[in-house]
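Hi all, posting the design record for the shared folder.

TITLE: backbone redesign
STEP: 1 of 1
STRUCTURE INPUT:
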C-alpha cells in the first residue's frame, strides 16, 4: 500500500526545466555545440556534471577539469539569473493543493531531485515546509536513472520502496523509480514517459491523492 510520495522538483513541482534548457543552450552555443529540445530532453533529471559530459560528447569536445568546472559554474550562474525572481507563480498547476491534501490524508512526502538548487527554489516558492525529507544533488552523487535519490528518500521517510509513489517528468527519473522498485506517475509526454504507471499532463487531473493511490 502506498504511504508516501517522492517528488522530483524541476518540471514536477516548479516550472524550472525551461530555465535549465535556456542555460545549457547558452553554454553549448558559447562552446559552438548545437543544442536543441531533443538534446535537452535527454538531460532532464540528469546531474549538472553528467549533463556537461553529455553535451561535450555530443560536440566531440575535450575540456580540462578546470575548464569543466568553469563551464558548470557559468551555466549555474546563467540558471540562477533566470530563477532570481521566481515565486509561487512558477509552481506548477495543482501541485500546492495536492501537497496540502496529501499531508491532511496522512501521506509522507519527500523530494528526490538531482538539483543542488532545490532548497532555495522551494523556499522561494514557499513549499519547503511541505516536505518531510529533502534528498537533492547536495546529498546524492549518482545521477538518475540510478535509484539512489529515491531510495534515500524512502529511507528518510521510514518507508519501504514499494510503499512509495514517485512523480517524474524525465525518462531517466521514471527509470530510476522503477530501478528502485517504486511505482511512478509521469508528468508530460506519454511518448517519453510511456513506461510510467500512468502519465498525466498536470496535477489538476489528480486532485485527490488518496483516490489516485486507490486507482493504481
Ligand atoms: C534536475 C534537472 O532536476 O537537476 C536537470 O532536471 C538539472 O536539468 C539537474 O541539470 C541539476 O540541477 P542543478 O540545479 O544542480 O544544476
Ligand atoms: Mg524533472
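Okay, here is what came back for every position:
SEQUENCE:
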Amino acid at each position: 500500500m502506498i504511504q508516501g510520495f517522492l517528488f522530483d522538483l524541476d518540471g514536477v513541482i516548479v516550472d524550472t526545466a525551461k530555465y535549465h534548457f535556456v542555460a545549457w543552450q547558452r553554454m553549448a552555443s558559447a562552446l559552438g555545440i548545437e543544442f536543441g529540445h531533443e538534446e535537452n530532453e535527454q538531460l532532464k533529471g540528469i546531474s549538472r556534471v553528467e549533463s556537461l559530459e553529455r553535451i561535450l560528447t555530443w560536440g566531440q569536445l575535450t575540456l580540462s577539469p578546470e575548464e569543466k568546472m568553469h563551464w558548470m559554474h557559468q551555466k549555474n550562474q546563467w540558471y540562477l539569473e533566470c530563477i532570481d525572481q521566481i515565486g509561487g507563480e512558477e509552481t506548477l498547476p495543482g501541485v500546492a493543493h495536492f501537497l496540502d491534501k496529501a499531508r491532511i490524508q496522512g501521506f509522507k512526502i519527500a523530494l528526490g531531485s538531482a538539483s543542488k538548487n532545490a532548497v532555495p527554489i522551494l523556499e522561494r516558492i514557499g513549499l519547503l515546509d511541505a516536505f518531510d525529507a529533502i534528498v537533492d544533488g547536495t546529498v546524492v552523487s549518482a545521477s538518475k536513472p540510478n535509484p539512489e535519490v529515491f531510495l534515500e528518500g524512502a529511507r528518510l521517510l521510514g518507508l519501504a520502496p514499494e510503499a512509495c509513489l514517485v512523480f517524474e517528468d524525465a525518462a531517466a527519473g521514471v527509470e530510476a523509480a522503477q530501478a528502485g522498485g517504486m511505482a511512478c506517475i509521469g508528468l508530460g509526454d506519454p511518448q517519453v514517459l510511456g513506461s510510467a504507471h500512468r502519465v498525466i499532463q498536470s496535477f489538476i487531473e489528480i486532485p485527490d491523492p488518496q483516490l489516485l493511490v486507490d486507482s493504481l
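COMMENT: The mean pLDDT is 96.
Let me know if anyone wants the other runs.
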